[in-house]
Amino acid sequence: MNRISWCLAALTLLAVVSGVRAEDEAGWVKLTDGKTFDGWKINEAPDAWSIKDGAFVAKGPRSHLFYVGNDRPFENFELKVDVKAEANSNGGIYFHTKYQDEGWPKAGFETQVNNTYTSDPRKTGSLYAVQDVHDVMVEDDEWWTQHIIVQGNRVIVKVNGKTVVDYTEPEGQKPQSADFARLLGEGTFALQAHDPGSTVHYRNIRVKRLP
Prior knowledge:
This protein is mostly beta strands.
């Protein structure tokens, strides 16, 4: 074993012994502790949210859970969220958004969570109403990883490592309306509780800032 290989092996062993994953070593930061809502803020209908087996569980009337644990806005980043949706469930992961007391978030973009929800054709991975996915990518009651990458005017969404959205915002893009201002900029993240009939689990939420 040469010197470089020995050093890499030693670093890997150190990471394992100290309980630090390679992903964390590469600049990823966890946004949840799996036990509390620390760093997060629920708006309307707080009873729509609970914590079970290390995951935020959304089940109840419309409500959004906003990340407020860092005052520095997120502009360019990678975000990974492990998600599980039960049958006929709808949810979402927002980015470049900001806290609001009620209503559907007006700022930022939503990446859809929906495998078999019958009332909306936009399926998991969609950049909601901007670049939609209509194929079912994952099964209900199974965990998957939703990976969102934002760099400049480009958004990539991956589901279990497969790219399902690759969107470039046109130069000079204008807000679609006062209630639908889907423009890239900066902001925070939010998770969605959509309706009482939907149950969605979100866990292992981690982010890496990009230049």
